[in-house]
Structures are given as structure tokens and as C-alpha cells.
Amino acid sequence: MTWRTTMGRMGSQLLVCLVVTLCCGSCARVEEEGKVLRLPLRSDDPKSLDPVQGSTQYDNKATCQIYETLVQYKYLVRPLALEPLLLSEMPTVSEDRLTYHFKLKKGVYFHDDPCFPDGKGRELVTDDVFYSWKRMADKGNSPKSWWLFENTIQGFDNFRDEQNSAVDAKKKAIAASTSADDGQTTWRLFEVFAKKSGDDGIEEVAFDYDVPIEGFQKINDYEFHVILKEPVPRFMWVLAMFQTAIVPREAVETYGKRFGRHPVGTGPFTLAEDDWLPGQRMVYYKNPNYHASYYPSEHMPDDVAEGWTKDAGKRLPLVDRLEFHFFVQDQPMWLSFRTGKLDYTEVPDEYFDEAFIKRTRQLRPKYTREGITAQRVKLLDFIFRGFNMEDELLGGYDEKSKKLRQAISLAVDLDEFNEVFYSGINSVYDGPIPPGLDGHPTDGRAKESYRGPNLERARKLLAEAGYPDGKGLPPIEFYTSTGRNNAEQTELLKRQLSKINVNLKPNLVEFSTLIEKVNNKKAPLFGFAWGSDYPDAENNLALFYSPNVSPGSNHYNYNRPEYDRLYEQARTMPPSPERTKLYVQMRDMLIEDTPYVGSMGRTRSYLINPWLKNLKVSETFSNWPKYLDVSEPRVYATEEVN
Known about the structure:
Blueprint: H1 6-25, E1 27-31, E2 36-41, H2 57-63, E3 71-73, E4 82-84, E5 92-93, E6 99-103, H3 126-134, H4 156-176, H5 184-193, E7 194-196, E8 202-205, E9 216-218, E10 223-227, H6 235-238, H7 249-255, E11 269-270, E12 276-277, E13 281-286, H8 303-306, E14 321-326, H9 330-338, E15 344-346, H10 352-355, E16 356-357, E17 362-363, H11 365-369, E18 373-378, E19 381-387, H12 399-411, H13 414-422, E20 427-428, H14 455-464, E21 476-481, H15 486-498, E22 504-509, H16 511-519, E23 525-531, H17 537-541, H18 561-570, H19 577-593, E24 596-601, E25 603-608, E26 612-613, E27 629-630, E28 635-639
Parallel strand pairs: 2-14, 21-22, 21-23
Antiparallel strand pairs: 1-28, 3-4, 5-6, 6-10, 7-8, 9-10, 11-13, 12-13, 13-14, 15-25, 16-17, 18-25, 19-23, 19-24, 20-24, 26-27
């Protein structure tokens, strides 16, 4: 989230002028060798590039340049649709919608790496798919997204439970054996049950990946069946998510804990450990052995005028090098773009008036004269402040706890947030379902709403919760990330809540620390955003399904049997008016229980430098750098260093 204040905006503009003046006063023309993309990543660097350990948008962007999934989104097509990536064709599905027949694309090779004989990457085969997905079941991998597969594939849940239980039992046996006089029993058990982990030596008790699963049926090295427990429409969307990407077993077993920093995939780019500079950037290089993939010819009518169809049929990727530069703060990102060191930028909210005429929302003439273009995309977005429903003060389902949360929600004015920090371009709505998806309320407001500001009703509910005029209510611990202008946004939240005498105690931490706090259920109230993984409201409603509690996607630790039953019924239904009715019923149940304060959906603005080609912005998927190109030679201005 980002913030804006008048003084902050004026100071930022002055600094922009100063830097641009300095650059123009003494600038050198620099020509890159080859084609280089320089793109921003608005976060500190990822902690791991292991797909099963990823969960954030930033993990997604960094990981899916190296690793690939069975299917991907069609780059230029809207509404969003899927196409083969590691498959030779889209899978066929049985009449009962349970059995999927997959055919892998031949000639797909993992990156060259010392983990393979002679350092040559081998061809991807069926066993790699099964192995990669099984890694999601191994608790020893600290997977963040088991919920994607949970209760979906025949035998997979049992495999997970049995293997993790066996590992726990082996560990207990090892611990019990330490009483042996000569210590040899312990060592022998380690020899039998442990696995090696590269330089780390013996690391942990082995999870048996070779145990067969009923729902994984190998036909040959290039064909296999996946059998579902019940028909689940989201299954194909899940297979486009980076967490289900395919990895080679050799790399995992060779590098152990280092695997998260030593990625080996099939993707269009490679990344060496030495090219990952923490807190600064990641430098990827074109994969010289990338399988035959081409710029798409399928497109929308308006794409021709935008110039997005000119490279149709060209071999991917189109550039030689890709750089992601990390920006926790927005100002350095903006300045990097304005001095030509980034190919595009997301427009930070505090710079919206600098880039656009607020009345018309058109790009200012000084930018168009430079050849800069703008794009705006409505995100499938859910910005919220979430309650930990297991928290002693804020959690629970009794009337007292519920009224406390409702009172807090009624004191928050999201329209003020939208106007002050987002230039009024965001969508404010009730429930967790973003605009554009089935179940979103008409005009954004549900029949029963606890969206503020309604201070009179908030004070009444606060008194009914046992805290008249806020008396007796302890300070509420609130966690959100540093960076951007989150400190200012938190101050506004604090001021709004003070109107009903609710005292907010802010804790601004790094994003990775925030996620850790939330995953460990240590954040009573927390703020960030959820971008839908795929264009179906089921994805957002899954955020409140009780089996997905932290460290899964249910960060609120919401647990209502009635809700779970409705979700389980809806998740197997194809799109229909009947399914939408269930979505609405679940939505309204959440509005009443108020496990979060919300909601808001962002409209993101991008500015693109004139040398960057083919960028059609999407934030639902992130493997699109392979389609991008830059003018050759790429020339930009940079300040001389004396």
C-alpha cells in the first residue's frame, strides 16, 4: 500500500527536478551490450526461489522467469485464458470431469547445471511433474501453498499425512536412541533414514518421494493421468500458478537448503547465485537452450494499434538479460525511472499528480513529449486489514467479539483512504470478491454492511461489546510493512480509530517479517493486499476456508463450519447462477462476522519508457518478461561518476 501527503509530494517533486538537472548537466550516453531489461520489484528481495516456498506476488515475479508450469496465460488475450506451456496440447478431460490426460512437450530441457552428469541439463519427463508436486506435501520443505492441492487429487492427502507421520516417527526413534551407550545406534538410524543436503551434510529425515499416489498415473515419460477426488474447476487455474512449477530432483538433492538460492528450471532465463545481490538486484541471463516458444499471434483487436503484434512468431525470449531491481521505498524507484535506469515504473500513489492531470487523468504533456506512454489496469485486488480470529482480544465468534470488530470496521473511512492516497481511482466495496468476478455486490455495497464511516453506530456496537467509549479496551497491535508511504497510511488509520477511542499500536516491519508474523499467528491486526491468483471468486473465498489457516492463505484463521460446507459445495460447481448464489451467501456471512476491515481494489498505473516494446500489463500472471523487447541499441542517460 502507498500513501501521499502534500509536503511529501512537494519534496519529492523538488528532488526529481534536482536529480534530473544534475543528470542533464553532466550525463554520458551509455550503450548496452545486447538487449537488457531493467524492471522494478517493489519489495525487498525474496527469501527463496524454491517454488513451493513462495506465496507472494514478488516471489512469483522472481521465480517464474526460471521455472515453468504446465500451462500459462495467453499473453495478449482478454478475458484471461490458458494455453499449453510445458504441455504439447491442453489436457483432455473425462466426461465425469475427474480424469485429466496430459501430454508433455518433447525437447524441454532443464538448465545446464553441475547437478547433472557433465553439467548438461536433461529432458523434462513425467516423473519430474509428480516429484515437483509431491514436494508441496513435504512439511520439511516449509511449503506455503499446500491448500492449492489439498482435498483435490485422489490419494494425495493420504500420502502427505502418511509420509509426514513416518518422518516424525523416525525422528522420535532417533531421539530415543541417543541413550545408547556407544552412540552407534543413532548414527545407524541416520544412515538409514537421513538424506544428504550438499555442503550441509546430513540434514533431515527422508520423506519418501517414491511412494506411488493413486491419482498420479504415469503412462510413459511424456504422458500421464491425474485423477481428481471430485470435479474442481479451479484445478487448471492452479496449474498456471508458479507454486506448481516443475523442478529437477537432482538440483534439490544436490543443493539442499541452497536450492532456494540456486534455481534450476526450464524457463527462458537462468540465474546464478553470484548474480543475486541481496537488497539490490537479481540479474538473469537468456537460456541458450530454451525450448521452442514463440511470440503469440492470437491477440485482441486493439493490440495491433498498440504495436503488440509486430513480433508475432519470433523465438522467445527476445532479450539477452533481465534485471530486477529491488525498491522498498517508492522514491528511488521513481527517480530511477525518470533518469532512464528502469524500462517502466508502477506509478506510486504519491506521484499520481506528478504524472497525470487529476481532472482528466490523462498523462501530462511533458511525459508524452518524451515518448513515455501510460497504461492502467484494474487489479483483481482485495486490500484489507485482517483480524486474527484466534487472537484473545479480537478473535472469536461470540456477539461481544463480533461487535468489537464491526465497531472498528465502521470507524474506518475507506473513501478517505482512496481520495488521500489513491487519487480516488480505486474501487471501494463490501466483501472479499473484487469487481469483475461473480459474487461482487452490485454498486459495491451489500445489503448488510459494516463499512464506515458511521461513528454513531460504531460507538453503539463498541459499548455493546463491553467497551463504552473505548473504556477497558487495551491498545490494538497492528502490523504492516515498511516502505512506500505505509507509515502515513497507518497514521490515518490510527486517527480514524481514535474517533471512537480505539487506540492503535502500529508495528511497521519488513514485508518478509510481516508475513512471518501473520503465518505464525502473532499479528492481532494486520494489513496488506491479496491479488487473486486466477479469475474466479472461489480463489478469494478460499481465503476463509478453515483448512487453509496460517501458514496457509487463511491468514485470518477464520473457522466456521457453516462457511466450510458452503465452500466445499461451491468449489466443485462449474460457473452457474446456482454457484453465484452460494458465493453471495458466503460473502454475506463474512461481512457479518467481520474477520477483516475492507475492501478496496486498486487501479494500477504504469509509465513505460519509449524503448520498451510489447508490454501489455497484467498482474494476474508474471512470466511476461520473455515477451518484452527493447530498442537496439538501448541508449539511456546516466550521471557521470567522477
